[in-house]
Amino acid sequence: MDMKHTEKELQALKEEVNQMWKLVLSQLEKARQSFFGNDIDLAREIASREKRVNAFELKIDSDCENYIALYSPVAIDLRLVLSLIKIGSTLERIGDFAEGIARHVIDNDCNTLDASLIEELQLEKMFDTLIGMLYDSYVALESENTKLSGKILAKDEEIDLLYRNSINILTDYLQSNPTFIRCGLKTCLLIRKLERIGDHCSNIVEEIVFYVDAKVLKHGGGKYKENRLHIE
After folding, report:
1. Closest CA to 109 of 32, 29, 172, 180
2. CATH code: domain of residue 121
3. The model's pTM
């Protein structure tokens, strides 16, 4: 088998995932911009670009499956292809949540949140942290540097804490502002979308660690499991 040819095919697969990653990162950045700027036109652009995200996932799935069928990869090459399939799927889910945020803006029925409430919920910090997590995980795959994994997983814990705090903040706010109940519930759903994006960024990191180090982080409470996989 021509090793240079298989390496070229692997690089093509990674490049496809990189292109999808850049698109999803752009979608999330624009979701932030549309939400805080109440930009309905930008939100509609995000919704229309979601089809491109879906198309990327389908192509990555197909190309990775074809690579496995043609070259029967083993060890690190197999781990890479399996990870790329899962990363593509996870990026698609993040794209879905970015579209969900855009739909919140497009609805245009709860876009006048009290500035003090936005500040107390720390929504800007949530958005900025998530964008940083998605970018850092992109760098981790590009550099094959799993030392970034701890930093990214720690940020997910910050997002989880902000989400938990938001429930108490919204509960107190709604008790004082009962006319805001419908929008309060929609705001809670939006924050839940942000929390799920953080979870998915952590899932991506787990796949990168699996590929590079052949270690499983999943269900390990954010710590490496010592057992190594048999496909090393």
Report:
1. 180
2. 1.20.58.220
3. 0.91
CB atoms within 10 A of CB 61: 15
Range of the domain at 45: 3-213
Domains in the chain: how many in total?
A: 1
| Summary mean pLDDT of the chain | 91
Our CA dihedral for 186, 189, 194, 195, rounded to 10 degrees, sits at: 150
Q: State pLDDT tens for residues 38-69.
A: 999 999 999 999 999 999 999 999 999 999 99
Helix, strand, coil % over all residues of the chain, rounded to 5:
85, 0, 15
Rounded to whole angstroms, how far apart are CA atoms 129 and 152? 9
Who contacts 65 (Cβ-Cβ below 8 Å, separation ≥6)? Answer: 85
Structural tokens at position 6:
């298989």
